[in-house]
Design brief:
The protein has 133 residues and is of the alpha+beta class. The chain has helices spanning 3-14, 56-66, 89-96, 119-122; strands at 18-19, 24-35, 40-48, 72-78, 106-110, 115-118. Strands 1, 2, 3, 4, 5 and 6 form a six-stranded mixed β-sheet that branches. It is globular. The termini are far apart.
Length: 133
């Protein structure tokens, strides 16, 4: 099992679309990330009627930060149909602000062919780069 298969299975394990209340649904999208230290953290989306929800990627990142880490190596997000998806703009920005090395985060964009992209390719000329110098 390669690392992408492991991350995919970890995300899929927590993916479980469900209604929490008349205002909140969760679990339609799930994410798993691998840290530079080699740990895996997962998260699911939380969608709310007031738009105060959280994407699966940011939920996994919150889990990582809660556990004392802040550098991501790899990330995979699984959408409702089981395919992988690219992080939204808010998640891209959130990841870029984690570390000066965040541009190197590898994101799976095609599970079958193991196609990946680096975060810096999804958010080129990021406004905050000079803050790390």
């Amino acid at each position: 099992m390669d690392i992408w298969e492991k991350l995919y299975h970890e995300a899929h394990r927590v993916q479980n679309a469900r209604v929490i209340s008349p205002f909140i649904e969760a679990g339609g999208v799930a994410a798993a990330l691998l840290t530079k230290a080699g740990n895996i953290y997962v998260g699911v989306c939380i969608d709310t009627a007031s738009t105060l929800g959280m994407c699966a990627e940011r939920n996994a990142i919150a889990n990582m930060i809660t556990n004392g880490e802040h550098e991501i190596d790899k990330l995979v997000a699984i959408v409702e149909d089981g395919s992988v998806g690219s992080p939204c703009g808010a998640c891209r920005e959130y990841m870029m602000q984690l570390s000066k090395n965040s541009g190197e985060i590898e994101i799976l964009t095609d599970y079958v062919n193991r196609k990946t992209i680096r975060l810096k390719e999804l958010i080129p000329d990021w406004w905050g780069t000079s803050q790390y110098n």
